[in-house]
Fold these 4 entries.
Entry 1:
Amino acid sequence: MPKARPAKKIPIRVLIAKPGLDGHDRGAKVVARALRDAGMEVIYAGLRQTPEEIVRAALEEDVDLIGLSILSGAHMALFPRVLALLKSQGSHDIPVFAGGIIPDEDARRLKKAGIRAIFGPGTSLEEIVTTARALARPSA
Amino acid sequence: MKAGARLPAAARSIVDGDRRVLARTITAVENGDPAADEVVRSLYARSGRAPVVGLTGPLGVGKSSLVNALVGRIRSLGQTVGVIGVDPSSPFTGGSVLGDRIRLERRADDSGVFFRSMASRGAAGGVAAATREVSRLLDAAGFDVVLVETVGSGQVDVAIREIASTSIVVVVPHLGDEVQTLKAGLFEIADIFCVNKVDLPGAEAAKRDLAELVTLGGRPGGWAPPIVGTSTVEPTGIDELWNDVVAHEKFLDSSGERTRGERQRLSHEIVGLARDRVGKELLRRLEADRSLRRLLDDVVARRIDPRTAADRLVVGSRRAR
């Protein structure tokens, strides 16, 4: 059986999903590629995912991390719902980060609710990768 | 050993339908984590029940959409299905974007479907090294059917043959000469040919080309691969495709080809696993006793040749036992 790279580094698995009804997935795709280029395995779930679908995918794919992208403005309804579902499944230990157009006041409240990091427009990919890595492997 | 023998707790949970434990065990298998070893071993006796259906073919022919359509068909027949979607890992960063889920219809509350994305992690042939064992876990978990979608593959990516009981090779109209090149490789592993996007012009010609190739030689045991036209835009031919899978599975049983194929696949697997372990053991010993380093000096100085050096290593490692 062909062996992978000699260094036995276990890739971080991350789910990138877009809840909400907007069709703007460019940001999510750019972030997915950046995380891939950083050596992660990115499960790209695509557009218009319900919180139920996102949580289901996260559990089946056994991800280390969930990234949510939203531009529709429905983040205050959808993000807490994802967190609540994770909690009800006993998986609140999976860190969730988010990106999109999210006003500062909302961002503060979402962080209090348990979203671990929120990236607005203009955030560098490097910062997103570094944060994602730290969230997925806090000890490393 | 025996089915029904006492199972480790995690294996018991998987058999009882705990999807979380299943998902975590898959991760452990992918990572070569020794924690999965006992579970994998103990569940083997419970596998071999579900047909393992592989979909392979060039990039962009619509494999993911077909998988979704087949999942719908299988569910409508009241059967459950576990799906593995394999995508390539970057040979440079090891990273991967796994996008096979995008085409999956929304089934958030349907426990009869389990979908897992896998990165190929450097394995050649269109599947990951762990795909076979993961498909067995899905089988042991009780799914009636296992579907495996390979990396969009070239003509030599035939590793699915080592896993699937039925292999579907998917093409689209106007592959033209590419169909010709399928004569070797992919063509030889097809139990069923699927001409997808049959709504596009050229579909009839593509089917004809394949039919011509099929007459040049069928599969072992006298199976002539059927050629099915499908579309997932205006769902066409999906029922027929699934009926052909069922027919092929029946043929495997009635012709004795299932046992023959299984013996062949398992013999490859056992030899592969053994080779893997011998190789690792050899490396471990070479590092431990520095015999390679000493030989290397002689080979570099042209005192002995590489083949002789290898002879000595093998004899040496035998003696060390």
Entry 2:
Amino acid sequence: MNTAITMDGLTTPIDEPRFAPPKRARRVAAVSDDEDAQLMLAYARGEMRSFETLYARHRAALYRYLVRQARDTEIANDLFQEVWSRVIVNRARYEPRAKFRTFLFTLAHNCFIDHCRRAKSRPQGLGVEDADAADLLAAGDDARPDFELERDESSRRYRAALATLPPEQRDVYLLHEESELSLEEIAHVTGVGAETAKSRLRYAVGKLKAALAAAEDLA
Amino acid sequence: MSGDDDEFDQFLARKRPLFRRPSADEVEPPHDVDRLVLRQARDAIKPSQAERLYRGPGWGVPLAVAATLLVCLSMVLHVVMPKEAPETGAATLQVAHEMDAAPAAAAAPEPSADRFGEVTNNSAPPPVAARSVPASAPAADAARAGAPDRATVASPAAAPRAAGAPAAAWRADSKSWLAQIERLRAEGKTAEADAELALYKRQHRAYAASPDR
């Protein structure tokens, strides 16, 4: 079994991830948000176990949102850490007036907006979809099974279609898909009205559907 | 258009996806990032965990400190301060000597008494300071009037002595008391001698069980 040296100097098995990834995150039964709020309050009182539970529940969805938004895994890693850092720092001021998920994705949305403002003056690096395409070309198709190639191609098309969306529409769509927030909550996170959020989501879904259909026709 | 609206409403209600999302889209944060986040979370609550080690009432800590200081002070005083026990032990030994010396005291010449409880004029009551000195040593009689004896001062018989001094002067010390008992027996007053002996034993038993011992 492969092992990795952690920052604490301990070896942990790589083959046994600490958090079992859900098969289909969006189909996992939604946990009670009151329970999330209670976990957050318990962590604010010093219970580390509560934070671990909270983290295990939301890490994958939050990471997907940030990766699709930033389109760069390095930036997404930084933003992911920054979001959780804000959760940790603000634990004492947390009040369960809204769902914890709304609180978390509001932080994520704000972190990404801050990142975009900071990055305006810097040149953009290689995006995820570009990197994936480069990897596919470099690896060659002969050594890979057909179903893997098909799955990767499908995923690449999806990410490429997502990248063509305007930022506001992509933001609303990703919040709807990854955070499972309601339209009203998405509107609250993005700072727009519910009708605006709904309109953006409708346009985003329509464009994605058309782009994916066109890509499949070409394939 | 209404068909699109229904489709979109079902999409909003998460009842039906509008397009097939690829399964390879499920990305996970790296394990290193997981460890960094969890470590930061753990470090953030470490100080508060230290504060929560004591969960008792607020006045518990000062009370515990005060109690600890009191116990320590008591122990220090117990070790440093001189003990009274050797003197008490000396007094006990003195009383034991007195009881051993009782038969000898009976043989020694004693002031005559007309009857129980009365002492003749020419036989003055023994000085208080000489009560604890063995009667068998004649040379010690001269010293009886000398320096006061600490064991005599500490004797618990002093209290009844002070109360009933005019009635029974021989009860002032063990030697005189035992001598008086012997004298009563010699005179054939067995009942009085037994009563006096019982009183003597009772007083000395009380002394043996006293907290000063």
Entry 3:
Amino acid sequence: MATHRLSILGFATLPDASGNVWFEPAVLTQTNDRYPGLVARFKDTGTKDSLGIRFPVPNNYVSAPVIEVIWTTTATSGNAIWDFDYSSAAKTASLDPSADEESLTVTTAAPGSSQTGVASQMSATAANIAANDILQGKLSRDGASSDTIAADLVVYDVIFQYSDV
Amino acid sequence: MALTFGGASSDRVEITAASSINDLNPFTIVMWVYPTSLVNNKKLCQKGLFATGGFFGWNLNGTGGNLETSVRRAGASTSYITNSTPLAITNKWYCVALTYNSAASAGQVHNMYIGDLTTIVSEATYGTATDGSGSTSAQAAGEKLYVGNFGSANQAFPGHIAFFGMWNRELSLGEVQDQQFQPHKTSGNVVFIHLGFNGTSTQPDWSGNGNAGTVTGASQSAHVPLGPPFGLSRHFPYTVAAAVPSLDSWYQLTGGPVRENHIVTSY
């Protein structure tokens, strides 16, 4: 038995049309400027702003699916609301679903100090997902809900975690 | 995606005037463009009108593929015109960049950089390089920034435009090269639009400044083939042929998690 984790940000990753989500070098907000990799910034708004994601479910997927958002912010108080709305289907099924198969949400407090990482996990229904599926979804910061962090959220990675038994 | 201009001379994308884009000095513009014909005075972009105060404009000059730019200054306007015909070949993608900095040394007030899908950007040469004098003139209130046209809306760029980015500082040649094959938001970025990704509806500004564009006339077309516009996967191979026995083994091979559009037949 093993738990596997893989990043699901890939070629299909696309910010929505709100203009409130974008990619930028991490050094724009870091002070030590050591690692120039890209991060995704979610602006502090009163709307639900999203990042489109698509990835193939690994061949050895069996159970315990979790979407994990690794993020940080300059704020040290308030709560972030992350949503993950998705549909997972066989690669030969419809790739144009008319509704979300499941909508996940998690509320996570801001880190105690600025620029410290936070991991927000959302567990999905295992039976919704099968090995070799194409999983399509939207990761959203839900400013229309009870998101109370008065600062942008910066996402360093989005992880799909699962078990092979 | 991209947008195709020039079907009508009024085709354009308008960005409403805003403090983040008004009267910039210095500034830099980076674009990916695909001219389908070369017609004198057709516009890549412009803000402000020659007749009504301050402005900057960037357009085709002549029919041989040269570029021209001008910024109104209080004493005399700038005028730089290339003589190296950087856009000489039609039906081809070019990365073009324009800088303006009134405080730069003589002959460096503007720089125009040109590259393509297989050539790193480098500076053009100029037949005219008039630096002008005086302070940069203020644009009239409410003057919009036009992509693919200008305020009179009768000089649409003949071809496709895939990307438009603007910075409120002068990017170095190295920084322009850094943007060429993977445009991304960096310090001072005030407009960041991949045209056509939202169809012909509002063109989102992914700079975070809300400088979205409104489309008139232009139609959606294929994007410049740069790879993923937003994804994080540019530095990995694109195809993994089979027979990778396990995900862990794949991690050992690559040194990290799988994060791209591999065609993976087995983990």
Entry 4:
Amino acid sequence: MIHKTSPEVGGMGHPLRRKEDLRFIQGKGNYVDDVHLPGMVYGQMVRSPYAHARLKTVNTEKAKKLPGVLAIITGEDLAKANLAWMPTLSYDKQMVLATGKVLFQSQEVAFVIAEDRYTAADAAELVEVEYEELPVLVDPQKAMDPGAPVLREDREQKNNHIFHWEVGNRKATDDVFQKAPVKASVNAFFQRCHPAPLETCGCVADFNKATGKLTVYMTSQAPHAHRTVFALVGGIPEQNIRVISPDIGGGFGNKVPVYPGYVCAIVASLTLGVPVKWIETRSENLQSTGFARDYHMTAEIAADRDGKMQALRVKTLADHGAFNAAAQPTKFPAGLFSICTGSYDYPQAFCEVDGVYTNKAPGGIAYRCSFRVTEAAYLIERVVDVLALELKMDPAELRRKNFIPPVRFPYKSSLGWTYDSGNYEAAMKLALDKIGYAELRKEQAEKRKKGELMGIGISSFTEIVGAGPAHTFDILGIKMFDSCEIRIHPTGKAITRMGTKSQGQGHETTYAQIVAQELGIPANDVTVEEGDTDTAPYGLGTYASRSTPTSGAATAIAARKIRDKAKKIAAYMLECSENDLEWEPGKFYVKGAPSKAKTIQEIAFAAYTNMPPGMEPGLEAVDYYDPPNLTFPFGTYACVVDIDKGTGEVRVRRFVAVDDCGNIINPMIVEGQIHGGLTEGLAIAFMQQIDYDESGNVQGGSFQDYLLPTAVETPHWETDKTCTPSPHHPFGAKGVGESPNVGSPAAFVNAVVDALSHLGVKHIDMPIAPWKVWNILKEKGVIS
Amino acid sequence: MGQKIEKTFSVAEPLDKVWTFLSDPRQVAPCVPGASITEQVDDKTYKGAISVKVGPTVTDYRGEVQIERLDSQNHEIEILGKGQDVRGRGSASMKMTGKLRTLPNGDTEVTSVSEISVVGILAQMGGRVISEVSNIMFGEFMKNFQARLQQPDASAEVNPIKATSVAWEATKGLFRGKS
Amino acid sequence: MAKKQLVRVKVNGRDREAEVEPRLLLIHFIREILQLTGSHIGCDTSHCGACTVLLNGKTVKSCTMFAVQADGGEIMTVEGLMKDGQLHPLQEGFKEEHGLQCGFCTPGMLISSYALLQHNAKPSEEDVRWGISGNLCRCTGYQNIVRAVRFAANKMAAAEKKPEMAEVAK
């Protein structure tokens, strides 16, 4: 049962204004580039212009002579210390600084350290590198061909195939397809894009030669995991490493991997004994750090003539670039892509994914998508629309017919996931009512007679977040639990620390609200800290919408442990038995005699001044939470677009987002997350792509070409919700940060295709830029 | 990044004179701003260098120029130039076909089709900058070609084009669209 | 290395000066020499606006200016918004309307909004969106930022009215 707390206490459901805002609005945030330490020097990367080449010589003589240059590290230098290669989060390895060859344009070749960043940049220009160009592979299909040049000569396997992964019942699925009266299929390419948080990646590595302690200020979404990786890779005792993630200017998955810049800065600091700062430029960020997606997917549905889906068959080619640096749970090289059965009940399904190397930046990461869930949701929502076209059925109607009904939960999908809860039809009904679906269809019919183009797109997605249960989930062997410790002070205030790390999600407020809910201590009396590995309990960090499902749960459990102890103290103070006590947020009172009560503040004071005999003093608890399952947020997004026939420009007229993330901690913060994620989805659907030409030159390597929407392109978002609590989560919450980025691309694309489907258009790959639409209109004879 | 550029211009000189000039890389190369032939390897192959300045970025390419085809009957020449930046900033290659034709007034028309491919930092700026740079370079080339034809003994004091003019032209080009 | 030049500026009301290389960018001057780290660097092509400051009353992207170009001028950064320990209505608005999440774009947004409200005290939603179109945000989707700016506009308009009403009441 969730008690209602007063606004002063600010527990669950209150749109509490954020505590962290005060420093940000005054320009007093503490981001990594704001860190300034005495004696600090600057590092700059020298990068390869070639996508594939033998590295012949690296000549640092001229650069070293420049006044102000302290050192230059090359791959050869690192190789001597066995550091030229480092493990990736996918059990592959990645070059820190190139030796032997380079494998993607912008790959790290040397690291220059100088007194200031301008000198470092000058010196980087003076480093002379000799390359011998090799044939470039940027087409993943060609990379899979038997005769293709082998990119990774360091591997035993002499080809570019990284992994093959499959799940489901291939034979049973194929049988259904053999007999199925109706089939629909789509080839959908989810283009390579990049999270591009506004703050780029960087660090200040500070090795204190006197104490032997290494402190790394880092843009890290997972500080503890990074600390452990540094300890294992660098051979530094883990207690001598402190990773501090201060304020982070957006992550979206980009700040989960370990980048060569961090390693080089650490090595430089270890060698020079001074703090070394490395902050990448935006171009470096876009061209070399964790990209997302690049999935070439095919989906097929086998169905009955009346639209009941019988089987789903999916095949995907995953382009991972030069190194498999994907941040995925170990057992899932394609992440949670097998959620691609989506919100629908498929008696049979089969899914296979093949990963391949190409001469592109390494990756991929989960860009606001909980490990490939965006790819999966996009694919299923697109192919369902294609089936609707095939059956000449309304897409909403087709979905309704195939949704997993509420009675079937917990639902085991044909690809192995047990969905904890869901109520898809209710979410869709709310979204369609809100957008006026029936009226819009009438309007569309009218407009079509006049040759005007408008479309309505639906996306009824299911998310899978909160990785994850220890029996299945680990990254580099570390299980994906998370943690919280809470300490109540004598005066009834509290400090709490978690193993997650906010990059804007508002944890300093929301976690405090959980404590407020569980203990009745006002949220403003609760300090929340994250990101310092010396003080915070071990956790796997914030990404994949996992904070609320894991650390949020740990917070509730730890608070309940405190409440249990508080009850004993209260019973002692009130001279009654625990069984006589009732709880309401903030106090224990005697059943039937509510005036006989002790507030949590009084109890806290007593924990230090008047403990029951034999009881350990203090009032604190820690919990490491191993979630029993993932959580499954869901929703329906509905989008209306109008297309300008003259320019091919697509205008989003309305967008309604109905999200179900179970019980909500702070509705204001949830709404903000939805707005942000939808905007990222809009950018992906219409504006963004990181592409490579046949020579391996990056196209989209700066904001000149990699487009971010401004306030002008971004439409007004209409949000609403349904509430289907997670049955296994301590307070029924599910996590929501990524849903909007997961569910929206399909809504946009479905809307555009819907606007053109009467012309025979079934699918358009993203980004749907005006020139693509214009070409289609020309091809279909709509414009001459 | 591949670019195809076609240019036609005429010179007030007889065809034979122009052909002799055009078929000798040691004469033609210096007409390209920032370019020079440093060595002749054999009758078809030369070593050369070219310095290209785009804004503040200077790329010094060093490489080879090869005469792929020399057709004295039809007055067609095909040259392949390939170079790598000395500091390792990238590479570029250009295949150029030059064809001559006599015009009614006795002048010679030169038609050139060039296919340029760039790898590296320059290529990231996209085709727009490359085509603007190529246009400017070709403009200079034409002027120098005509000048040197008329005064073959004049010392080839041809400098890399000014950074400011390239940057300005390139920026104008971004707004002007294809010319 | 070029000879250093003296740059004298008034920043948030205080006179500051330093000897700098002519090529030092204004944003680096502000962040590293003046140690005002509120203004941020988010890109290298002057698209993102995280470095936006006011120079002689106009918004500029300080990553695309040299410090020497600001010599003799007056600069306001986000650190100069508060007056006498009171938050500016814009700062209040951003907090009240949840106009920030990671906070990285916020200083630039605040300066751009400040400049907008100087020109247009009653901006419509569209006015605000155009007014902040030079500032990129990855977290908020802009919707709450628009609310925040209009909150500030309303608050500032109400404050203007109060003295007038006092006159009327007399």
